[in-house]
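hiii so um. not sure if this is the right channel but i have a protein structure encoded as tokens and i wanna go backwards to a sequence. like what aa goes where. can anyone help
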């Protein structure tokens, strides 16, 4: 099990950028696939992006493809989410998740696919 702490919360204008970080504590973080989910006001929590334990493969929701980039630095036990061209529809609490599963990350788009979760960080995009 790993403990996850997100940071990078902020208020930005539409069209702006923001980078979120997720720092993991616990051993062998490099063995964990990691993902970002988000939950907007009055909405269900939804998948945003995922990255394999090695960092070699990534997968994105259609709504963020081409605008968001997930990456990781295992030496720093950190996963990042670079968000560009933000719109008010991106306003949400963003959560980091991790799991030891070795399934293709394109199949891990449900909340139940991920075991360990952070507390979330708020992102607000103004129009």
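sure thing!! here u go:
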């Amino acid at each position: 099990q790993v403990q996850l702490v997100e940071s990078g919360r902020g208020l930005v204008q539409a069209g702006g950028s923001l980078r979120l970080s997720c720092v993991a504590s616990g051993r062998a973080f490099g063995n964990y696939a990691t993902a970002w989910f988000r939950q907007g006001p009055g909405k269900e929590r939804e998948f945003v992006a995922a990255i394999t334990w090695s960092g070699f493969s990534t997968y994105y929701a259609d709504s963020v493809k081409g605008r968001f980039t997930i990456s990781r630095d295992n030496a720093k036990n950190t996963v990042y989410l670079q968000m560009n061209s933000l719109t008010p529809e991106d306003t949400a609490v963003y959560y980091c998740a991790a799991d030891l599963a070795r399934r293709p990350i394109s199949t891990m788009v449900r909340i139940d696919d991920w075991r360990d979760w952070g507390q979330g960080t708020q992102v607000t995009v103004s129009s």
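oh and The radius of gyration is 13 Å.
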